[in-house]
TrEMBL record:
<feature type="binding site">
    <location>
        <position position="54"/>
    </location>
    <ligand>
        <name>[4Fe-4S] cluster</name>
    </ligand>
</feature>
<keyword id="KW-0408">Iron</keyword>
<dbReference type="InterPro" id="IPR041957">
    <property type="entry name" value="CT_Nitrate-R-NapA-like"/>
</dbReference>
<feature type="binding site">
    <location>
        <position position="473"/>
    </location>
    <ligand>
        <name>Mo-bis(molybdopterin guanine dinucleotide)</name>
    </ligand>
</feature>
<keyword id="KW-0249">Electron transport</keyword>
<feature type="binding site">
    <location>
        <position position="766"/>
    </location>
    <ligand>
        <name>Mo-bis(molybdopterin guanine dinucleotide)</name>
    </ligand>
</feature>
<keyword id="KW-0732">Signal</keyword>
<feature type="binding site">
    <location>
        <position position="57"/>
    </location>
    <ligand>
        <name>[4Fe-4S] cluster</name>
    </ligand>
</feature>
<dbReference type="InterPro" id="IPR006311">
    <property type="entry name" value="TAT_signal"/>
</dbReference>
<dbReference type="InterPro" id="IPR006656">
    <property type="entry name" value="Mopterin_OxRdtase"/>
</dbReference>
<feature type="signal peptide">
    <location>
        <begin position="1"/>
        <end position="34"/>
    </location>
</feature>
<dbReference type="InterPro" id="IPR010051">
    <property type="entry name" value="Periplasm_NO3_reductase_lsu"/>
</dbReference>
<dbReference type="Pfam" id="PF00384">
    <property type="entry name" value="Molybdopterin"/>
</dbReference>
<feature type="binding site">
    <location>
        <position position="368"/>
    </location>
    <ligand>
        <name>Mo-bis(molybdopterin guanine dinucleotide)</name>
    </ligand>
</feature>
<dbReference type="InterPro" id="IPR006963">
    <property type="entry name" value="Mopterin_OxRdtase_4Fe-4S_dom"/>
</dbReference>
<dbReference type="Pfam" id="PF04879">
    <property type="entry name" value="Molybdop_Fe4S4"/>
</dbReference>
<keyword id="KW-0479">Metal-binding</keyword>
Length: 775
């Protein structure tokens, strides 16, 4: 399963040395990691150091990879990167080992008579193209689909969108970022009319207070969290952890505030109530730069097939909004949320203090939420009411989970409703894309088809017959997993999977394509702060592995789209990126030229007049501002942001007498998502070899369960048995349990619910009702 380099012991020793922690890390082992010193790097040989963004999370750390004799043998943080400034986390330092697992997929495989048979890449690509043609002929163009990833490179996602939307003529393209960042997108779009954060990581250097909304940042974004701790040492900043369970982030924070699941909505409204009550509203900012709106409520949770929802925004006044908040006094919300009125007022006072700069940071907690769009809106409400936005240190900042969830999904537009520069519903956007793609505008459908959950439901129903899955592992990550796993096995379905290792998803494939991984090919990622980063091909791919980009190009040509996919193999990445940049021309979203990306550790869009834009909507920093005012929220026609009236509503499934516990799922610092890469890194696998269920210590004692005991977790959808974890890494509240989802041998998503936010269509993996029993 693991790397089998001839100098394996030496290699692992080198990597272990390079993951030495800072002295500060002794407080929280495994979380903070130092930039290694040159003396600790491999000696001898001729290491050729090349820059790249890290392969893992959305932070987008810059790393330097040491190449020796055609192999990647060392990693160090790039001291020139403004993202991580030479730091790396444990996954980053060990990233190159993931290239060399002994079970790498190196040859195409076709399922024949129930068994996988090795074949040539040509035969596999021919078969894929013929099956696509056959499916379209028999069932129509909307019977074929592609499901990609926030781990796709920008060129991967771009050619996928061009092929399916522009050439085939179906909007059946989705990416797994729908499962992790869709609510962030709809939050930005509804509040500002344009996507992605207005700030940047440099806000960390200016903020006085950091409020972490349901975000275990110490484990999920450890390098950024180390920057927060560094600022506390230097400037005495405060870190407030607002969460449903005690984590390593809570232990490192200045204050930990625990709330009941789903009630973050109520607490955010209570903070707004306090801001208004105490006269902390920045009246000049709000009057000049904000509107007030409300939308539909009680809109359901998307659990039925073909669920449809169309919000109907309605303008309201400040007085209307103020009146709405009377139901959210701290004292009333204390009864709902379990958060004391004193703590609500404490948080509100930091936001309301005109002399305090506040940075709000969040990730999956508010996003994987059946009211995820609303929760994003509410955090923006707090910043807009106080005018603490788009200035250094005042920043509502949504963190991403995957290396290019922003760059490849949100910017390229690999969701059913999106285009690289807009949406399929807009005729001008379709015309613009059609011109660049060299296709008739009629080719691009004007209506979205299926978001991720509905796409797999359509596969189950038979509306979709062909699905190509690239760079993701949905047979581990889909909620209510058994339904969708069973769907893939139904007669008349044809599944193609492109990946680097065997996974539960390759297990259900009819064709498996071996993919070139990361630095075995050329590409770009886009990180959380709008930074596009380039990496070159550094080593040869394993066996016959081919980049996902070129797999798609080869199939496109076989489908008859040679004119649109005229790229040359040796220069296709440059050609594709230059074509892609045409979609984003203009001061609001211009992308940096490729030579700039090659010469430095990335560039932030909008890239205008040779300069990255760090703070958007602020005329001092953003050349797209054109209203003559200090702030211009140009995503909206009138240049104003929206403060939304969004109520608290309960979760679709809450604990009851039969299923009395809340289940929350998430990640761990050692493993990347489903573990298909990191579990092939020996030191990471040994550090965290399997999943577990965290129990509240008091309840564990009552149930006579101790660490390591087998525990059965069951819901209305399925059950799973895991070892218990009591008083170890995280500590849940009473009647709550937590399970990480990285372990393919313990599929917690057989238990989870496929309810989603009706606006973003993002599922809620953080809240469903379960029963807990000693097994």
């Amino acid at each position: 399963m693991y790397t089998s380099l001839t100098n394996r012991r030496s290699f692992i020793k080198k990597m272990a040395i390079m993951s030495a922690m800072t002295a500060a890390a002794t407080m929280f082992p495994g979380i903070l990691f130092a930039d290694e010193q040159e003396k600790n790097l491999p000696k001898g040989g001729n290491l050729d150091w090349k820059k790249t963004p890290c392969r893992f999370c959305g932070v987008g750390c810059g790393v330097l990879v040491g190449i020796e004799n055609g192999k990647a043998v060392a990693v160090k943080g790039d001291p020139n990167s403004p993202v991580n400034k030479g730091l790396c986390c444990v996954k980053g330092y060990h990233s190159v080992i993931a290239l060399y697992g002994k079970d790498r997929l190196t040859k195409p495989l076709i399922k024949k008579n129930g068994r996988y048979v090795e074949t040539s890449m040509k035969e596999a690509l021919d078969l894929i193209a013929s099956k696509m043609k056959e499916t379209i002929a028999d069932y129509g163009k909307d019977a074929v689909s592609i499901y990609g990833s926030g781990q796709w490179t920008i060129p991967d996602g771009y050619v996928a969108s061009k092929l399916f939307k522009g050439c085939i003529g179906t909007n059946n393209i989705e990416a797994n970022a729908r499962l992790c960042m869709a609510s962030a997108v709809t939050g930005f779009m509804t509040s500002f009319g344009i996507d992605e954060p207005m700030g940047c990581y440099e806000d960390i250097d200016y903020a006085n207070v950091f409020v972490l909304w349901g975000n275990n940042m110490a484990e999920m974004h450890p390098v950024l969290f180390s920057r927060l701790l560094d600022q506390r040492l230097k400037r005495g900043v405060k870190i407030i952890d607002f969460a449903t369970r005690t984590t390593r982030t809570s232990m490192a924070a200045d204050k930990s505030i625990i709330f009941k699941p789903q009630t973050d909505l109520a607490v955010a409204n209570a903070i707004c109530y306090e801001i208004i009550k105490n006269g902390w509203v920045n009246k000049a900012f709000v009057e000049k730069h904000c509107n007030f709106s409300k939308g539909l409520t009680e809109m359901g949770y998307g659990m039925e097939d073909n669920y449809q929802f169309n919000d109907k925004p309605e303008n309201i006044s400040f007085e209307d909004f103020k009146g709405f908040l009377n139901d959210y006094t701290p004292e009333k919300v204390e009864k709902i949320s379990g958060v004391s009125a004193k703590d609500i007022k404490y948080m509100a006072a930091h936001y309301g203090n005109p002399n305090t700069k506040v940075m709000s940071l969040w990730c999956m907690g508010p996003n994987q939420h059946t009211r995820g769009t609303w929760m994003n809106n509410l955090i923006y409400n707090i910043h807009l009411l106080t005018g603490k936005i788009s200035t250094p240190g005042n920043s509502p900042f949504s963190l991403t989970g995957q290396p290019s969830a922003c760059g490849t999904v949100r910017e390229v537009g690999t969701l059913t409703h999106k285009l690289p520069h807009g949406v399929v519903m807009n005729e001008e956007h379709r015309k613009h894309a059609a011109e660049i793609w060299n296709v008739p505008v009629e080719n691009i459908p004007s209506k979205p088809t299926y978001h991720t959950v509905e796409m797999f439901r359509a596969l189950d129903r038979g509306d979709i017959r062909f699905m190509w899955i690239q760079v993701t592992n949905p047979m581990v990550t889909m909620p209510k997993l058994k339904r969708y796993r069973d769907a893939t096995k139904k007669e008349g379905r044809f599944i193609v999977v492109s990946d680097v290792y065997p996974t539960p998803t390759t297990d259900i494939a009819d064709v498996i394509l071996p993919s070139a991984m990361w630095i075995e090919r050329e590409g770009m990622y886009g990180n959380s702060e709008r930074r596009t980063q380039y990496f070159e091909k550094m080593i040869e791919p394993s066996g016959e592995a081919m980049s996902d980009t070129w797999q798609l190009v080869e199939v496109a040509k076989r489908l008859g789209f040679e004119k649109q996919f005229h790229y040359k193999e040796e220069t296709h990445i440059e050609e594709i990126y230059n074509e892609y940049r045409r979609h984003h021309e203009g001061k609001k979203h211009a992308m940096a030229p490729l030579d700039v990306l090659k010469s430095q550790p990335g560039a932030q869009w909008p890239y205008v007049d040779g300069k990255s834009t760090q703070w958007r909507f602020n005329a001092e920093y953003d050349p797209a501002c054109s209203n003559g005012e200090k702030f211009h929220f140009y995503g909206k026609p009138d240049g104003k942001a929206v403060i939304w009236q969004r109520p608290y509503e309960p979760a679709p499934e809450e604990p009851d007498t039969e299923y009395p516990f809340w289940l929350c799922t998430g990640r761990v610092v050692e493993h990347w998502h489903t573990g298909s890469m990191t579990r092939r890194i020996p030191v990471l696998h040994k550090a965290m070899p399997h999943a577990y269920v965290e129990l509240n210590p008091g309840q564990a004692k009552e149930m006579q369960i101790k660490t390591g005991d087998r525990v059965k977790i069951s819901s209305r959808r399925g059950e799973i048995i895991l070892p218990a974890s009591v008083n170890e890494r995280g500590v849940p509240e009473r009647n709550q349990v937590f399970v990480p989802f990285f372990d393919e041998n313990m599929l917690i998503n057989d238990v989870t619910l496929d309810a989603f936010c009706p606006i973003s269509k993002q599922p809620d993996y953080k809240k469903c009702a379960v029963k807990v029993e000693k097994a």
